[in-house]
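Supplementary notes for students who missed Thursday's class. We covered one full example, reproduced here. Read the sequence, then the structure, then the short commentary at the end.
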Amino acid sequence: MSCAPLGLSWFATSPRTAPSRRRGSAFRIPRASTSAPDADDGELDSVYPEGDWRNAALEASLSDEGRMHREARGRNVTYMLKVTYDGEAYLGFQYQPRDATVQGEIEKALSKLTGEDRDFLGVGASGRTDTGVHARGQVVHFYARRPLPDLTRARKSLNGMLPKDIRVVELRRPHPAFHARFHAVRKTYHYYLDTRLEHDVFTRKHAMHCGWKPPDMERLRAAAAVLVGTHDFSAFSNQSRDASVVRDPTRTIYRFDVVELEDGLVRLEVEGNGFLYRMVRNMVGAVMLAATKKGAGAGDVEAMLAGKDRRVAPMGAPPHGLFLHEVVYPAALVEWTPPGEDGEASAENE
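Structure (token representation):
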């Protein structure tokens, strides 16, 4: 399987005391194909684990029926945005008719750019971040009736219309079937801790201050390691905002790293194949309890995981320290070149 990462780093020049891992480089745009991959394309076989619902979603979106459904509504072209934002001023990502949201601001700018209303644009994101949560690598898709003539100019126009705390850092044309949520292979979240006795006034809105009772780093790493692997994460999931939706609580966490940065900052890096509602913040709350409470440790997190009871696990960490850092997709969907065009015509980088 070939996948394409979309993400940025914060404090990229800060020294790390944790072991360095080679991560996917910033997204590049090689020429991948001159024709659309179909459901039988070898690059798309077994993109997700066997039995994963996303396999069916991918097959449906790549089918003739999926294409005809889009084209019947005039949605002839699909575009993908990589967006970074400070979530402090917004009631989360998802559109709310009477409140400021990230999606609402993006839709207003796209409507001015394309002349289409929000119903036609069909804006969707890789995930609906909560109130106060930030993003460095949020991925959004939308539809258009015809190709945009100049993607670099279009991105600059969008940023000229968006509030200063929301930026489009990449605009590209993926495969027409691309869907930001259904086709995500894995995601990475970062959570920042400020362990200094006095918080830094310049990071206080983007890191949880815990200097009054800093975590024991050895216990913090041991507790985080408990959550790596495939588990039932019911104990770390709040009830969904849509009570009618019943989700499988089993998820796979590939890594939960504790990275010590300069000046007392700590970054928790959590990478998984998907996350339940408020799962990351709840996991951070649990490992912080294990690392700060007298007599607590990794065994408490093991008990929470095995108990599968959200009422037993501690309160989740506050939203302002959380960043959606990176989302990875099948390369055959993202690194796609429309027939008759070259790579420069279908993508642009900042």
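Commentary. Residues 143 and 243 are 29 Å apart (CA to CA). The longest helix spans residues 279-292. If anything here is unclear, bring it to office hours.
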